[in-house]
What we know:
The structure is a homodimer. Helices cover 37% and strands 19% of the residues of chain A. Chain A is an alpha+beta fold. Chain A has 2 domains: 8-76, Orthogonal Bundle (Arc Repressor Mutant, subunit A), CATH 1.10.10; 92-152, Dna Ligase, domain 1 (2-Layer Sandwich), CATH 3.30.1490. In chain A, the strands form 2 sheets. A 3-stranded antiparallel sheet of chain A has the order 1-3-2. Chain A has a 3-stranded mixed sheet with strand order 5-4-6. In chain A, a hairpin with a 5-residue loop joins strand 4 and strand 5. Chain A is globular, with a radius of gyration of 18 Å. The N and C termini of chain A lie far apart (43 Å). Mean pLDDT of chain A is 89; it is low at 112-116. The A-B interface holds A 75, 77-80, 95, 97, 99-100, 106-109, 111, 116-118, 120-140, 143 and B 75, 77-80, 95, 97, 99-100, 106-109, 111, 116-118, 120-140, 143. The complex binds manganese (II) ion (MN) (2 copies) and zinc ion (2 copies).
Amino acid sequence: MSTLTQPRAAWRDRLRAAGLRVTAGRLAALDYLDDHPHSTAAEVLEGVAPALPSLSAQSVHNIVHDLTAVGLLRRVDLPDSDAARYETRTHDNHHHVQCVVCGRIEDVDCVVGHAPCLTPSQTHGMRILEAAVTFRGICPECEARTRDAAQEG
Amino acid sequence: MSTLTQPRAAWRDRLRAAGLRVTAGRLAALDYLDDHPHSTAAEVLEGVAPALPSLSAQSVHNIVHDLTAVGLLRRVDLPDSDAARYETRTHDNHHHVQCVVCGRIEDVDCVVGHAPCLTPSQTHGMRILEAAVTFRGICPECEARTRDAAQEG
DNA sequence: AGCGCTCTTTTGAGTGACTCAAAAGATCAC
DNA sequence: GTGATCTTTTGAGTCACTCAAAAGAGCGCT
Ligand SMILES: [Mn+2]
Ligand SMILES: [Mn+2]
Ligand SMILES: [Zn+2]
Ligand SMILES: [Zn+2]
């Protein structure tokens, strides 16, 4: 029932290409994150638990760390988030919108090339490598809920 | 020796205006953060300790939390940072550059109004409130150090 | 297919930022 | 000054994450 953009065979190849061994935990984590982007380590653990009950929390931390190091995963740090999040969509430097009410997170494509994001007004002499942009807002559902609550009040 | 942009009397007024009581801990934290922007709660504690040895870590957390809630402080969450940082420069929605090597943090003014920062390509229906932009790069000092090390190697 | 080196996972313990709650203390309106 | 209320302190606890050593699995090789 899952809609995986990357079949398992592809993950196997990419793991090997990165010099990493193919393990059940790594494949399960990649599958899960491909289907559930922006998940925390704890959510990955919970998500793969039915299929891989023996996988430990420590292993999930090892896995997301190692896969991020070789570029198979990307780590996303959002404000007001206690835990780091991970996704399989890497190397496109896309950004994120987050609803301040319900926490819903969505991707935002970066205007690549002529990037306003990559041209700060003052760089303090720093050579800029990348820009992490997090938009904070209110999603339609939460806005509607807020409106309804206001009308009753 | 400190170069405070806000004299103590001004902080007293702003605390009162916000409905908060004027306490030694709050004034000390505001003074320190005015002089040392982007400090963590632990750094604030260490910084005010000489003048206020009795102030507890818990109090510093209470203080930065409460002052952020009323807008006297702004909380800054940066990637790869274990602790939240705080600053007195609020309500101008400025951004930050961070050196990935030494961690040095500098302010970057936002191009207010015609903000590329505030106009994501896809909003997923969300009403955008603000954009948090963190530029990651290498500062001149770290770049020079890296170059020197490469020449020796 | 089986062996064995090496990498990975598990197990166990620990750190550090932050939170919650109740008691002691300070602020400020009166 | 006095008292109600807000703050700070004290004490304990949570949670993400880290470190390290032992157990286990992957895979190159024969
Ligand atoms: Mn994403
Ligand atoms: Mn700043
Ligand atoms: Zn929402
Ligand atoms: Zn630097």
